[in-house]
Design goal:
The structure holds 2 protein chains of 2 kinds. Chain A is of the alpha/beta class. Chain A contains 12 helices and 12 strands. In chain A, strands 1, 2, 3, 4, 6, 7, 8, 9 and 12 form a 9-stranded mixed beta sheet that branches. In chain A, helix 11 packs antiparallel against helix 12. Chain B folds into 2 domains: 44 residues; 249 residues, MetI-like (MetI-like fold), CATH 1.10.3720. Chain B has 12 helices and 1 strand, in the order ααααααααααβαα. Chain B is globular and about 85 Å long. Chain B is mostly helical. The relative contact order of chain B is 0.13. Classes of the chains: A alpha/beta, B mainly alpha. At the A-B interface, helix 1, strand 1, helix 2 and strand 2 of A face strand 1 of B.
């Protein structure tokens, strides 16, 4: 009985000491914590690239610098960024006017750095002789939820096309590619049809389309680039004539709406900290390799050089680095 | 003689009725058995399936010592399990004293009037509030108002709020289970109310209180949505600072301010990735999380057993 009492007392004592230490230490420690941490948040589209860069950067620094990368979406990221909570914001679109004002209101200046392209390719079987190009409206008619079970033949998409059933291949609902396609082709509040063959493995999609003359599918441009011999790309017409997906048309911004540049926004005042500056430089320097590795399309080398220049001069504000970005 | 008389009483009609009743009895037993089997089999199937799909990763030691990575075969749960451990420690340190004290007050000291009844209803209601609401509260109060940041401290406090009702309610129930005569006997020899509680009531009810607390904590360890709200859905490839330092003052509270990730969130992150190899990682992480919860619950059962043995009335 005595021993348990003693134990209980010593436990209380230890608790009290810990609480005291906690209270006294708290105020002094709180300020230092953010020092070597780079806080990044924002778009889930940009996340895989920033994650890869963060992983490599931390490895190269042997843990001396800590990087956190969150997924709040582009809008959510800018909200936190303009509230001063972040060092870098990931964005799958340029900053909006309203967000610029929000940042300005808090006195937050930022350097805009385009880091890659997010591009999709619609592909058909090489023996498909009719669908050389499609309009975005035709793609919508083919893929929207309302088409499920009703629109099943090529002839229903464009008069004159064969009266045979098409088979559809696409990424599963978990993938960012799926989200992007739905967003730009079907529109915000529209659902994709579900009677297609989904796969998260692009190989399966390529194989599916390459074996079936009546198949159509879509996936990341980077993957199409590696499989040009097995599938045929469809030129996309968004109202200004049909444009084939190619590195050139992605780069000059004419391959729309299935390609878009994606960005990171670095807080200018955070660039005074060596680790943020080094991270941003590291990002641009290793972008070509890492962007490819996570299946996005890198910018031309000249753009990365221009962006590095912009970074070193701390040129702030929303300014296209060149036409199309 | 008597038996013979009784058997004479059982007319064919009564016999038939008896038979029917027994059949009904059997029927209900079988139904109950089937019901529990369905639950158990589903659980077993889920766990076994998860453990089997996660096995390729579970069987490698690196899974526990590596950070998250974009390459599934290199990704591990180090940051996640350390984070879970730290967050749960904070939760326990915050929730247990407050919860137990509140329970003692409500049960032993508070007068039974409309105010205490109102508090009681509210505590019970709080136990049913969806956890995402706690997350929103924490975002407003801890992150923005108290400026704790999106840290281990914030997460620990959030989960502490979440399990506080559980701790309070189980504390009260354990206190209530102590026979009134124990208290009266102590008062009779001149003990104050505090002495009665400290020397008699608390030691006897500690088993129940601990069990409830641990079950609350094991709920907290699997909690996801309230932590996502405060911004824990994050790629983290580092550990918080160690609480123990080589030089004076030997303890550091820096880890409380550190960004963090926890097991269920790491799992959620992997599940939402397209690459099928990450699903293996998610299954492995899920198995580890299940094991953690089972261990905690097992520990609660063991504690209850041990402490009950120590009670001598």
């Amino acid at each position: 009985m005595i021993s348990t009492k003693l134990r209980r007392r010593s436990a209380i004592l230890a608790g009290a000491v810990a609480a005291l230490a906690f209270v006294t230490n708290w105020g002094t420690q709180a300020a230092q914590s953010q020092n070597n941490t780079i806080a990044i948040d924002g778009s889930s589209t940009v996340f895989p690239i920033t994650e890869a860069v963060a992983e490599e950067f931390q490895a190269s620094k042997r843990g001396a610098v800590r990087v956190t990368v969150g997924i709040s979406g582009t809008g959510g990221g800018f909200k936190k960024f303009c509230n001063g909570e972040l060092d870098i914001s990931n964005a799958s679109r340029p900053i909006k006017e309203s967000e610029q004002q929000a940042c300005a209101a808090k006195g937050i200046e930022y350097v805009e750095l385009p880091i890659a392209y997010d591009a999709l390719t619609v592909v058909v079987n090489p023996r498909n002789t009719w669908a050389a190009s499609m309009t975005t409206a035709e793609l919508k008619a083919m893929w929207e939820g309302a088409a499920e079970g009703k629109i099943t033949k090529w002839s229903q998409i464009r008069p004159g096309w064969p009266d045979v059933k098409f088979t559809l291949f696409g990424p599963g609902a978990d993938s960012g590619t799926f989200d992007y396609f739905n967003e730009v082709i079907l529109g915000k509040d529209n659902k994709s049809r579900t009677d297609y063959t989904p796969s998260e493995d692009d190989n399966v999609l390529v194989q599916g389309v390459s074996r079936d003359q009546n198949a159509l599918g879509y996936f990341g441009f980077a993957y199409y680039d590696l499989n040009k011999s097995r599938v045929k790309a469809v030129a996309i017409d968004s109202g200004k004539g049909a444009v084939m997906p190619a590195v050139a048309t992605v780069n000059d911004g004419t391959y729309k709406p299935l390609s878009r540049p994606i960005y990171i926004y670095v807080k200018k005042s955070a660039l005074d900290r060596a680790e943020v500056r080094e991270f941003s430089e590291f990002y641009l320097k290793n972008a070509t390799r890492l962007v490819r590795e996570v299946d996005y399309v890198p910018l031309p080398d000249a753009d990365y050089r221009a962006a590095t220049q912009r970074l070193s001069q701390r040129e702030v504000g929303r300014k296209p680095l060149r036409a199309g970005l | 003689m008597l038996a013979a008389k009784f058997s004479d009483l059982i007319t064919p009609q009564l016999g038939h009725q008896l038979h029917q009743r027994k059949l009904l009895n059997l029927g209900f037993m079988v139904m109950g058995l089937v019901a529990i089997m369905v639950a158990l089999f589903t659980l077993a199937a889920l766990i076994i399936h998860m453990a089997m799909s996660g096995w390729p990763r579970l069987s490698t030691w690196e899974f526990f010592t590596a950070f998250a990575s974009r390459r599934p075969e290199r990704a591990g749960i180090l940051a996640a399990w350390v984070g879970s451990l730290l967050v749960i420690s904070v939760t326990a340190i915050v929730a247990v004293p407050i919860g137990v004290a509140a329970g003692i007050y409500l049960e032993e000291y508070a007068r039974k009037n409309w105010l205490s009844e109102l508090i009681e209803i509210n505590v019970t209601n709080l136990a049913g509030v969806p956890s995402i609401i706690y997350g929103l509260l924490a975002l407003g109060v801890f992150v923005y108002e108290f400026k704790f940041g999106r840290s281990v401290l914030t997460a620990g406090c959030t989960l502490a709020l979440l399990i506080l009702p559980i701790v309070i309610v189980t504390t009260r129930e354990s206190l209530r289970s102590i026979p009134q005569m124990i208290r009266e006997a102590a008062y009779a020899v001149g003990a104050t109310q505090w002495q009665v509680i400290w020397h008699h009531v608390l030691p006897y009810s500690i088993g129940g209180i601990l069990t409830g607390t641990i079950i609350g904590l094991s709920r907290a360890i699997g909690e996801t949505s309230s932590l996502i709200t405060i911004g824990a859905l994050t790629f983290i490839a580092f550990l918080p600072e160690s609480p123990f330092q080589g030089k004076p003052p030997f303890v550091s509270w820096e880890w409380l301010n550190s960004p963090f990730t926890v097991m269920p969130i790491q799992m959620f992150n992997w599940v939402s990735r397209p690459n099928p190899e990450f699903q293996v990682n998610a299954a492995a992480a899920g198995t580890v999380l299940m094991t953690m919860t089972l261990l905690m619950n097992g520990f609660a059962i063991y504690l209850r057993y041990r402490l009950r043995q120590g009670i001598k009335w």
